[in-house]
Amino acid sequence: MKKFIVSLFATLLVTTAVWAQAQGGGAANAVDAKLKFKKETVDFGKTKYNKPVTVVFEFTNISKEPVLIESAKPSCGCTVPKWTVEPILPGKTGTISATYSANQVGKPMKTVYVKVKGVDQEKELFLTGTVEN
């Protein structure tokens, strides 16, 4: 009887995992099912201290419906994002730009959190590079 209960529990666990993957693999895949980014990490190369630099993330709507970006939030106040505000039609492209103030010497890794209408989880985009004196 003990083996039967353990076997039943294991079967239930595996079935639940397979079902969850069949439902889309989680919220992170929901954005990826709508938007295809050319790059999710953009390296701005080298810049001088206090010389702002802007990177652009290009994407295509790969879904069959218009997609609206509700917001793009930076991981800190030193990065300012801008994005395509009108709905992006199927097959069309849009952009999210992020301007980093370069106010710290080193190799920053900044994140922009993108919120797509109808999707709970945000998409993370990264900008990196080198800030020199």
Automatic annotation (TrEMBL):
Organism: Chitinophaga chungangae
PANTHER family: LIPOPROTEIN-RELATED, SIGNAL PEPTIDE PROTEIN
Name of protein: DUF1573 domain-containing protein
Signal peptide coordinates: 1-22
Keywords noted in UniProt: Signal
Pfam family, one: DUF1573
InterPro entries, per database record: DUF1573, Ig-like_fold
Protein's UniProt keywords contain Kinase: no
Keyword Signal: yes
Lineage: Bacteria, Pseudomonadati, Bacteroidota, Chitinophagia, Chitinophagales
Superkingdom of origin organism: Bacteria
